[in-house]
Amino acid sequence: MILHIGCWLLLLTALPVSAQSIRVASFHISDLSTASNLERVADLIQQYDLVAIQDVSDLAAADQLLAILFRRGDFFKILPSQPSGDDPIRYAFAWRDRSVQILAPGSFIDIDAARRPVFAAFRAGDLDFVAVNYQTTAPAQQASEELDRAYRHMREQRPDEGDVLIFASLAQPTQPVPPLLPALPLDSPVPLDGSQGSANIYLSMEQTREFTGAHGVDRFDQGADESDSPDLSAVSQRRPVWIELATGKGDDDGPGIEPPSAVVPQSWGRTKAPRSTPSSSAWLRSR
Q1: Which pLDDT score, from 0 to 100, does residue 276 have?
Q2: Are the C-beta atoms of 167 and 132 separated by less than 8 Å?
Q3: Which of 5, 83, 169, 270 could be joined to 28 by an S-S link, Cβ 3.0–4.6 Å?
Q4: Could you tell me whether strands 76-80 and 90-96 are parallel, antiparallel, or unpaired per DSSP bridges?
Q5: Can you tell me the distance from the alpha carbon of 162 to that of 253, in angstroms, rounded to the nearest whole number?
Q6: Does residue 90 come out as left (phi exceeding 0), alpha (psi in the -120 to 50 range) or beta?
Q7: Alpha-carbon span 88 to 95, nearest angstrom
C-alpha cells in the first residue's frame, strides 16, 4: 500500500497545474558554477515558476542543477545564452515546464552596452510575455538609459506585445525612464556583500496589468548564524527578487506572440532539459 501511495504522489507532481498566477524572479547568483552550493540554489529556484539568472560561469552547473530539481520531482528547463561580453559570463532562463512554456528563444538585444541584454518569449496560462535578462556594472544614469533602449527596442520589434519584463542586475539602484517602472522599491535589501548592488524587475504598469502588485525579496539568509556565512557565499552574494503575475484573466494587449515564428530563432542558447534519468541532461536545439 505504501508503494502505491508513493507512486500516486509521484504521478501527481508531474501533472500540469491550472494556477491563476505565477511568480517570476530575477536572481544574480554571483558566479554560478560547480563550486556553488547547488542544493541550496535549487531550493531557491523551486520557489518560482520562472527565474532570470545572471552570472552563469559554468554550463556544467546548469546540468547539475537540473538533475537536482528532477531528482526532487520538479521538471525545469534551462536556456543559457552565449557570453554577452568580453568575459565568459552568461545569462540563463530557468522555468517550470508545467506552468510556463517557451514560445521561442530570442537573441541578444543590439544596444550599446558593455553586456548586451538577451530576451526570450514565454507563455503562462492566458499570458504571453517577453522576458529580458540584463546585467550591468554601469552607474545608475547609464543603466537607466540602457534599460530604456532595451525596452523600446522590444516594443518596436513586437508592437502587439506590451508585456515586456526586464529582469535586471544593477550596480546601483536605478530609476528608469517612463513608461518603465520598478516593481520593487529601489532600496530593496538585495546585496549580501555590503555593496550597492541592486536588482529589480522593470515593466510598464499600464501595459502589464497582469502584475498583481505582489512582490518581494527572498531573504534566504534569514536565520543563518555566523557559521553559515561561508555556505551562504557559495549560494549567492545577492538575494533574488520576485513579482507575481495573473495568468487566468485573459491577455489584454492584443494577439501577442504566436509560436513558433513570432521571434526569429537565434542560436544564442540551447534549451537544457533532463532526460528520463536524473543524473543526466540533454541539449535540445532551440527552434
Answers
A1: 47
A2: yes
A3: 169
A4: antiparallel
A5: 6
A6: beta
A7: 23
Kindly report which listed range (69-78, 82-91, 96-105, 140-149) carries the lowest average pLDDT score.
Answer: 82-91
H, E, C per residue of the chain? CHHHHHHHHHHHHHCCCCCCEEEEEEEEEEEECCCCCHHHHHHHHCCCCEEEEEEECCHHHHHHHHHHHHHCCCCEEEEECCCCCCCCCEEEEEEECCCCEEEEEEEECCCCCCCCCEEEEEEECCEEEEEEEEECCCCHHHHHHHHHHHHHHHHHHCCCCCCEEEEEEECCCCCCCCCEEECCCCCCCCECCCCCCEEEEEEECCCCCCEEEEEEECCCCCCCCHHHHHHHHCCCCECCEEEEEECCCCCCCCCCCCCCCCCCCCCCCCEEEECCCCCCEEEECCC
- Dihedral angle, C-alpha 102, 108, 113, 115, nearest 10 °: 70
For residue 267, pLDDT over 90 is answered with no
Distance, in Å, from the CA atom of 95 to the CA atom of 263, rounded to the nearest integer, reads: 19
Distance of alpha carbon 165 from alpha carbon 110, whole angstroms? 17
Q: Is the peptide bond before 255 cis (omega within 30 degrees of 0)?
A: no
User: Tens digit of pLDDT for each residue in 199-254?
Assistant: 999 999 999 999 999 999 999 998 766 555 557 888 998 999 999 999 998 787 75
